[in-house]
Design goal:
Layout: E1 17-18, E2 39-43, E3 53-55, E4 58-66, E5 74-81, E6 87-91, E7 93-94, E8 101-108, E9 112-122, H1 124-137, H2 142-157, H3 164-177, H4 182-189, H5 192-200, E10 207-209, E11 213-218, E12 225-230, E13 238-239, E14 245-246, H6 250-253, H7 257-262, E15 267-270, H8 318-330, E16 334-339, E17 342-343, H9 348-352, E18 368-370, E19 373-375, E20 379-380, H10 387-403, E21 408-412, H11 419-432, E22 437-441, H12 446-455, E23 459-460, H13 470-483, E24 492-493, H14 502-506, H15 508-522, E25 525-529, H16 559-564, H17 570-582, E26 592-594, E27 596-597, E28 602-609, E29 620-627, E30 633-639, E31 653-657, E32 663-666, E33 669-675, E34 681-686
Helix pairs in contact: 1-2, 1-4, 2-3, 10-11, 15-17
Length: 690
């Protein structure tokens, strides 16, 4: 049963959690911007004042800068209130970096809006104990320090909200201090039981609190999962005797779902499934003239058969689509649908709402361009002529598909629409259904990508696709795991139907293995586009797209035959997804940290999750060592900061390669040999020490 608003929780969310108690009277910012004890740079936070986000089960670092004048010692709490009203209190610890930053990690285990505030206080016992230890040890002011300690403990013993046994103990110690004895005073100042008592319930004469703040916690799928993209029209498509192709349908595509689920994926993402226009339809390989039977790009949405709320007749009916969603759910898969807010020249919007488009001086409607690319088959929307009307229609479209069972939308090119529109739309949709997730497909400038995440997108495509060298990956993965983690969640797609990087084109099968291993272990969300497991690496000349691109034609693939011949990456993808399920450290974003090697092509990183957060009671540590040069064998020494998972430098420990089963004894400096043509990556589990 959820707790009533204002109740205090006994749920353990962090090892820093202390017994709950009511909020003390504290000064909060009034006409001045600071409190008596400053509380500055609170985190989690988002630039621009937007609400930070997390996902259910995410371990979130809470931190604040706090200090006071002079030498008196302070303490800092964070007071959390869950969406169901449970209140918990957590003691922050100072970092050992001289920045006056206090922090703790807390697992947020409930979907919805959490409120939090930081509370700083004078730690009167710690201040007295520190002074007493120094002065009494030097035989200075012994009677004074004993008397001050007695008064302090007597005051604590009088606090009615302390347990009776604790109050009696504090009273007894206070009485003992009245003797003024140096040995007694020194023993009290260093007494471990008293330190713990006052850590959990400080005695304080000065306190301050920050304003209440909010962090929004999304459902688990917003923050972790493995995505698989495919075109339903290709699944079950058949070439007939006359050479024409009969499209696959939702019913035939259902047959692919068990294999996708068996590879361990969580989300099956479909490109647009709507009617496709015929005017200026693109032919194979993006040619300007379509031949008879060319299906056209699914992004040229709209025809006489309907628009964004319709199903392409070749794929089936709305009932068939709902059956596909149910079949996916039965396999443990969730369906994500492409939301491409644009229209073909044949879309019903063009005649019904010409004001939703840009009309040129010659009376024609402007088609889409992304120089040097031109999309003559697509009209972009103009949000300025009728913003209210177009916004209402887009909301209706999303709500329609939510009603069909879709709760995840991959949004095509959101950076080409007003940011304000997305802030409004996502808020409207999530107010009615907080389970709906939006993924931003915005390969654009960093500021725009981050702004889209800040205003509400729960996931974002990223530059991962083009970050291939050791230095590039270190910088990129560190940034997305820490710098922007309060609001931006990268989905590390290794390829898409639009993107086949030079690394994959020319890196051979090793490149495919390397990228899959890094994507699956570096971030909690990653994805692949169908055909990746078949090493489809031939590009259309002069482009970063596959030749014979599936966007413009049907694709015929022999999944099972390729795997039977040992020519499929499916076994590796299956194993990677098994490893992800078995290791909670891989299902967190902020657990990533880089280490070092003596080779510029050998990337080293770890992901560590402390025991209180794993659900097993045991810490989870994964070390990944990857040869990012797909053309070579690399031998080098890797250097690890083993203290990050609690192993002293120089101490030995065992690691198990989760891909090969090999077991080695390692320390902080280790020789590795990574053969790009055999095993280019180690994914190592740090075994528990006995």
């Amino acid at each position: 049963m959820p707790a009533r608003a204002g109740t205090r929780s006994t749920t353990l969310r962090s090892p820093s959690q202390i017994p709950p108690r009511a909020a003390d009277d504290a000064d909060t910012p009034g006409p001045l911007r600071t409190t008596r004890i400053p509380l500055l740079q609170p985190s989690p936070a988002v630039p621009g004042g937007f609400t930070p986000k997390a996902f259910v089960g995410e371990v979130v670092p809470f931190s604040v800068t706090s200090f006071r004048e002079g030498h008196d010692i302070i303490g800092v709490h964070v007071r959390l209130t869950s969406p169901s009203g449970e209140e918990t209190l957590h003691r922050l610890s100072p970092r050992d970096d001289g920045t006056d930053t206090w922090s703790t990690n807390i697992a947020l285990d409930e979907q919805g809006a959490w409120s939090f505030r930081f509370e700083a206080f004078s730690d009167d016992f710690a201040t007295w104990a520190h002074a007493a230890e120094l002065k009494v040890g030097a035989a200075v002011d012994v009677p004074v320090m004993a008397a001050l300690g007695a008064d302090l403990l007597a005051r604590a013993a009088a606090e009615r909200d302390r347990p009776a046994a604790q109050r009696k103990h504090l009273g007894d110690v206070a009485l003992a201090l009245r003797s003024g004895d140096a040995d007694t005073t020194l023993a009290v100042s260093t007494d471990a039981r008293l330190v713990q008592i006052f850590r959990e319930r400080p005695v304080t004469s000065l306190r301050s609190a920050s304003p209440d703040q909010t962090v929004n916690v999304d459902r688990l799928a917003a923050g972790t999962g493995a995505w698989y993209e495919f075109f339903p029209r290709s699944e079950g498509a058949r070439r007939l005797k006359d050479g024409t192709v009969k499209s696959g349908t939702f019913r035939t595509a259902m047959k692919r779902l068990p294999e996708v689920a068996a590879m361990g994926f969580d989300v099956v993402y479909l490109v647009p499934v709507h009617p496709i226009g015929t005017t200026h339809r693109k032919g194979r390989n993006n040619t300007l003239v379509a031949e008879p039977g060319d299906p056209g790009s699914p992004y040229a949405i709209g025809s006489a058969a309907g628009g964004h709320d319709a199903i392409h007749p070749d794929l089936g009916t709305p009932a068939d689509f709902r059956a596909f969603v149910r079949a996916a759910r039965k396999e443990g898969l969730e369906v994500a649908l492409d939301l491409a807010l644009q229209a073909s020249p044949d879309h019903p919007w063009v005649s019904a709402h010409p004001e939703w488009f840009t009309t040129l001086p010659d009376g024609t409607i402007a088609f889409a361009e992304n120089p040097p690319k031109k999309y003559q088959d697509i009209y972009p929307l103009n949000f300025d002529n009728d913003p209210e009307g177009i916004a209402a229609e887009m909301l209706r479209i999303v709500q329609h598909w939510v009603g069909q069972g879709v709760k995840i939308f991959r949004v095509d090119n959101p950076h080409t629409k007003p940011l304000q529109f997305w802030e409004w739309l996502i808020a409207e949709v999530n107010a009615a259904d907080p389970d709906v997730i939006f993924l931003a497909e915005a390969f654009t400038r960093p500021a725009v990508m981050r702004a889209l995440a800040a205003v509400g997108f729960q996931q974002s495509y990223s530059y991962f696709t083009w970050r291939n060298t050791k230095a590039e990956l270190e910088e990129f993965l560190t940034s997305v795991s820490h710098e922007t983690a309060d609001y931006m969640r990268p989905n590390l797609f290794v390829n898409t139907h639009d993107i086949l990087t030079e690394y994959l084109q020319f890196g051979g099968r090793a490149a495919y293995r390397i990228r899959a291993c890094i994507a699956a272990t570096a971030g909690p969300v990653y994805g692949v586009y169908a055909g990746y497991e078949l090493f489809e690496n031939v590009a259309r000349p002069g482009s970063e797209e596959n030749i014979d691109n599936e966007k413009y034609e049907y694709k015929f693939r022999d999944w099972n035959g390729a795997e039977a011949r040992g020519e499929s990456l499916a076994p590796l993808l299956r194993r990677l997804n098994e490893i992800r399920r078995d290791h909670p450290a891989l299902r967190q974003l902020r657990t990533f940290s880089t280490h070092w090697s003596d080779d510029d092509a050998v990337l080293v990183y770890s992901k560590h999750l402390d025991a209180p957060f794993t659900g097993t009671g045991r810490a989870d540590t994964i070390i990944v060592v990857a040869n990012v040069d797909p053309h070579s064998v690399r031998e080098t020494t890797v250097h690890l900061d083993t203290t990050r998972w609690g192993v002293p430098l120089g101490e030995r420990f065992e690691v198990e390669d989760l891909l090969t089963g090999a077991v080695w004894t390692w320390s902080d400096h280790n020789y590795v040999r990574l053969d790009a043509f055999a095993e280019p990556v180690h994914i190592l589990k740090v075994r528990e020490r006995s």
